[in-house]
Amino acid sequence: MKKLEIEKIIKNFSHKTILIIGDVMIDSYLWGKVERISPEAPVPIISSTKRENRMGGAANVALNIQSLGGKAILCSVIGKDNKGKIFLELMEKNFLKKDGIFLNKNRKTTVKTRIISHNQHLLRIDEEINDYLNKYSEKKFFHKIKEILLKNKIDAVIFEDYDKGLITPFLIKKIVKISNENNIPILTDPKKRNFNFYKNITVFKPNFKELKEGLKIEIKKNDFKSIFKASQILIKKNKHKYIMVTLSELGIFICDENNYYQIPTKVRDVTDVSGAGDTVISVASLCIASNLNFLDTARISNLAGGLVCEKVGVVPINKMEILKKIWN
Asked: Are 9 and 287 within 8 A, CB to CB?
């Protein structure tokens, strides 16, 4: 595809609406300075200078869609707790609608606290529940998503699975059926527990580790022919259209049932890989919704994933950053 055509597609992301279904969380950052070691144990003492809360998980995907110019509709379940209130405040601050958010007194709002000093990630503390939703909550959540799907013009659906129990086999089956019936492309960022419950997906996007674990195989990251064979197994077994595998420093692998490509990453000053996968699937969803071919989709997604790694923490990318770099 010609440069001007791709530029036009990226600029027209603003006409696309993406429905994101997945586990949301608060990414909490504690910034400070380390100048001495604790006398109590051989660990650094951090003098806190700043604390910040950001939206993470599926919420970061929604922020990326929004930053790229698209409209994001976020569907998730959070705890009926103080952290849940903070999450809703963050949604308001970031101009995201709460229509698809459910409060559940039996759930805990997921929080990941990262401790950072001099741009070095020292420690992460996770607070979460990862049991599947109970049957009552599952059905109630499904009917809300179905209502949103059928009342809005949705251009693509993303399953952003962080394995916290929100996305269940029942939910996957029902949403995929409705999406396929309405010719809405589906993209999935899977985790191990639900890996083989996803079927009939437009773009199935595991990372390399998830691909190996999901198929229970041992292959090398740079053995692209073996990755292609593994992907063909997935395509045949679960009837996916495209497999996109993120390979960290080796870029992105993408294939359909007949052909594969590996798009190498450009050498960058990598500061933090947090949120890179969220950025890749966000860009890919807008490209697929815009009918961009799967090879150019992978190229642009790979570029965007690399750009976000130059930033500290989970930060959304915007389309102007992509347009500036796309032809460099």
From this structure: yes
